[in-house]
## 1
Amino acid sequence: MVNSKMRYAILAGAVALAAALPVKAEEIISQRAIANLTNNCYACHGPAGKSPGTIPSISKLSAKRIISDMVDFKSGDQKSTVMGRMAKAYSLTEIEAMAHFIAASNAPAAAK
Amino acid sequence: MKMNNMNRRNFLKLAGATGATAVLGGFAGKAGAAGAKARVIVVGGGFGGATCAKYLRRGDASLDVTLIEPSSKFVTCPFSNYVLGGFRTMDSITHSYTALSGKHGVKVVHDTVTAIDPAGKKVTLKSGKSLQYDRLVVAPGIDFKWGAIQGYSEAAAEIMPHAWKAGPQTALLRKQLEAMPDGGVFVMVAPPNPFRCPPGPYERASMVAHYFSKHKPKSKVLILDAKDAFSKQGLFQAGWDKLYPGKIEWVAGAKGGKVVGVDTKKMIVDGELDKHKGAVVNVIPAQTAGSIAIKTGLANETGWCPVDPNTFESKLHPGIHVIGDAAIAGELPKSGFAANSEAKMCAAAIVATLRGEQAVFGSFVNTCYSLLTPEYGISVAAVYRITDQGIKTVPGSGGVSPKDANDEFRRDEAKYARGWYDSITAEIWG
């Protein structure tokens, strides 16, 4: 458990700091695990987080904003209908990793 | 070391790509692992199959992915109850495959799979053609146990529609509701577990009551249930008391709700205790995995398909994956949302396996919204992980909408139900 959390934590950093870090195979595999966690978000928030309807888009949010929102949904400090129920299922390190993944997916450079 | 640099560069370039599985694509190709294009065939273009086809291509653009689906357009079961409620059109719940073929590089073949040869890795189509695969995904949805209720057959469904596969059956049931006289009873026969869309029958009852409240104020809804409990029961029943007092009657299996037969000429439903006459009768029969899964030997004695929860690979035929309603997926419900979640995990596992890598797990998610009126929504939501006991809800998370929520909360959930539909259909067919 600790091990997987640590790997997520390393990865959240890796997305931001990849230029400065050598990337090992293990970290890349974990990046896939994060994708497998994050792809579920898009069922409600739309493709890559761009919602075509009434559910808020998350594609333009910074990782920082996603993390703080999720932490508040999880604690109940921010009211929600469904998000709070979901947020309780994720650890902080997972939330951080998913937030960085979503933000990186939608960064201008990633559009290519 | 040189290789490491290459890895890193690809990683940097692709770290932001939506499917991070794509990260591995660069150097897998460089390492010479890719020979001829791997062929993956997906059988069924519903919530599970169409998602899987798209995510396979997204995970590895070099894959040769063929989606085989009989219908040229797909009508979703989710939101089909709102057609019955009178505030959604058939067109608005119908989706085409043009984006999958045009934008996402999936070969879409409109045909029916008549046979699967697991040993020869081959599917045979109704048109007579046969196709080879390296990996097969079977997403056939459900079929019905015709004859489980005496007198209820495919022909009987033209008189007493099931409308549990959306399309002409939905339109037929809507037409019957419009034609029935004010004061007539809508009788629904609700199925035994497990079945597609656990809250669906009760949302449907709500939608029919909504329609009656506008157009047939003397009519009532009678639900004859094989079960003694149902999904979101407390929320549904509290909502019915508030919104439709005295208009929806639910009879539990133990109290005479079990139905043994139907008479389509007299429009009578035979319960274990009483006979009930309906102006419109909606029989939702007991279900199994889609017939192609059963025919191929992918289902066990339960009529559903046992799979490895990590990959959704069949426990009975390796090399074939079964996703969606047809699969035995632990605590995951048989819902379109769950099928979408399973499909993404399955696609990632197939991409990894074809590269000789290990599948990596994430999580599954499901939310089922139900409307009691167009402005009154309730939901059940959960995140799932794989445990020693199979796929389980994460403890302390998920659950149903609060029972004491105010009107604004119910309105928001109805609003988000519509948003969910827009998002997931764009995610799948967009």
Note: Residues 96 and 165 of chain B are 17 Å apart (CA to CA).
## 2
Amino acid sequence: MHDLDPIVESALEVLTPPSARDPDWYDVLTRARENGHAPAALVLPVSARGERKRNSSRRVALALAAALVLFGLLVATSAFGLRDKLVHLFSAEQPAPSRVILNFELLDRGAPSGLGPGVVADDARRVLTRSLSSGLTAVLYAAPTANDGFCVQLEFRDRRSTAREGPTDCSLASNRSEGVRAEVVSTGSDSFLLYGSLRAPEATGVEIGLADGRVVTPPVTFVGPPVNAGFFLLDAPKTSLPTEVRALRADGTEIGTARLAKPPSTGFVGWCRTTPCNADPTTIRRLTSLRTSNGVLVTAFIAETRDGARCIWASWTVPTASSFSACPAGTRAALALGLAAVGVQPDAALVLLGPVDRTVVLRIEVESQGRTIAATTPTAGYALVELPAITGRPRSIVVRGLSSSGKVVASQLIELPGRH
Amino acid sequence: MEKVAGATLAQIESAYRVHAQRFHRLAWSLLGDEQAAWDAVQEGVARAVRARDSYRQEGPVEAWLWRSVLNSSRSMYRREAARHRLEREAVCDLAGGSPKGTHGDASTDADAVRAAVTRLSERQQTVLFLRYYADLELIAIAEIIGVRRGTVSATLVQAQARLRSLLEGVGDDA
């Protein structure tokens, strides 16, 4: 570096020695996806506004094309006696925002090899919007998959239009339950949302049976290729939870029924259906991912609970979803060494830790039987670390938090659980 | 990997993987906190991912990412640097009082350099760090921070002279 003063050059070398930490591309994607949670200065790039302007003229053209196609479809369906079934051109629906596209992309990036849904994220579209009694607005996005299926993602927006990620689901495209599928997720302490799809060619609508005996018929929005499905949302108070969804033909006869589990599921993320404790699904965020030495992708999540606490958990699929979590109440504030949880799968043990006060703890070490067996640096206040095989007894570990000077500032003794 | 108008995710990922450590050194230099620096890098690149449609191919993707990381670091510095310093001092007290200078020569040197660097102007710091840590040519630095090459050259000379005088203990307080 010929134009630098040697004294200055050596001084700068001392200032910031190279970091031992590896770059984390998954973390970048997650942050990019979660612009609603990002620091205010980073939420809305100027370019995003330009993107909307560019898209608006394209959307006008698409809308005109869609109107023509819809007119044609209306004429065609009338001719075939399917007047009640209006099919929208999927590609003419409003494109999904980049955070949703990224989330769909992560379904494949985060899935174990060969188990990804093959989602075509760039083709994601907004298919439904519904105002909820909780004050939120639910938006349902759909994206086709390479094998003629589709994935959906729910998003909840508050009155300030702040978006919060809801569940992402690739199971609705299944033809189980005679073409009708539905799930129920919590949207607040006393309210739930049913979202579902209809994929029987002759189906023109659904009716939903409620726990109080009433039957309701929400509007169904049908979209054409490549998704070829109808979608519906139903805002359901706690006192009248949905119990089943029936797919109907135009003449009112029943095609099939999807019965809903009681109590309703509390939401899930991606290909993992495991959400612990009392977590509010609208607050779920992915923290970090780790591929274990036996090739299993483990993803750590965090969510607020309805009683004001915070849950962290990690989940994986071997071959069905498993998870471990830590959700004691009253743990919103970062502690010197936060919560710690340990999960064991057949060939690997994992420790999930957080939130760690990063002004105090810069390095995490795991000790077993008097020797350090793993070490890591917390990412954004959390750490997910794989432990090497532990043999002998007692089956316990000590997690230690070290300061920048290497001093142990906090430690926890953790008993290892039994194998799942 | 999909192609979008602007930069592709693959381009950004590739540049990120190649330059992440140097991004981090730049951010660390500006923020004075290793962990906060990683946050700034991750946020800066995430911001670029979100705004990847805005990349106009007027220069390499790397330069565009440098600008994003630099802006992210500056934002974080303005927002949190003062708070971080207060917290570090408080933690030092709580941990039994480990005053500066007790961590060994390396920390002492780094603290002295950091103290001197903080007395440079923001532009001087930026030019110096981009030249040293990013190893960027002056013209590239000029494009990233939006000034002329001659301004970068002059700023670099001033920054080095001032830093050297500060390190030698003859700097003024201006």
Note: Residues 39 and 155 of chain B are 28 Å apart (CA to CA).
